[in-house]
Prior knowledge:
Number of strands: 12
Number of domains: 1
CATH topology: Rossmann fold
Strand order of the largest sheet: 6-7-8-3-9-10-12-11
Shape: globular
Helix content: 25-40%
CATH superfamily: P-loop containing nucleotide triphosphate hydrolases
Structural class: alpha/beta
Distance between the termini: 27 Å
Amino acid sequence: MEETIVNATNLKKYFPMKEGIFSSTKDYIKAVDNVNIEIRKGETFGLVGESGCGKTTLGRVLIHLIPPTAGTLVFMGSDLTAINKSELRRLRPHMQMVFQDPSSSLNPRMTVKNIIGEPLKINKRFKGEALNTKVLELLNTVGLDVQHMYRYPHEFSGGQKQRIGVARALALNPDFIVLDEPTSSLDVSVQAQILNLFKDLQEQFQLTYLFITHDLSVIKYISDRVAVMYAGKIVEYAPTKDLFWEQLHPYTKALLAAIPTTDPRTKKKHIHLKGEVPSLISPPSGCRFHPRCPQAMPKCSEAEPELKEFHKDHFVACYLY
Length: 321
């Protein structure tokens, strides 16, 4: 058995909606609802889905940036939902995140040296000249050099800012990094450089990634396994090659059919989905995709299908299987 680094069971994250003078809870936004996910050490686990489906929230919950509402979350053998603050602080260096927008995730009033050096100082890893040496080493690792140490974020391009964010995430030698759409704000040529950087760093430091994106071509290139998320639920996950070869869930089929192709000889049948993405405040009963599904059956609206293994390591939540 491959070692599991993250294991989430029945994970939920509900955000309360407040109203009135006394801020009473009116309802909940069910951003993550009964998600079961297992990420193996050393792999890149892709997470795809439409905007607003809960991908980023799930990524933040998995490293306990925001606490889950319910469920269990085991990271490197420790249940993050049951440990105290001092034990959680001890595990913090092992999990990091690279954010979607590097411009908003870097402090504009700090130099690159201070941005990258801050986690090292807080965790009392280095100080003085040793800190400068370590920061320079991290900059070199992500393709930057000494001349960038004393500049501010606004002096860099988007790709360079993302490299600074990656260097900061690497500072404490983490085991697991959540990459939240790290290439979505970059030009295509720069995207390729950053993706190759992630691959090189993974091999060099034996990293495990959760790669969140809505770009399936990126997922096909970088991930080992991929999960498809819809309205707060995981509807299908499988090894990447298997998913691109055979999609089981109707939503996954529609997603892959929407990938544009540059080859005029390739004929693709686009799947038109009726309706709109459901509200996470009052999602549909049963399968959340059934109001838009071209293959919906009466029982799809009555009870929620379980995520079950259809082929080896290929799971799907659908009554068609």
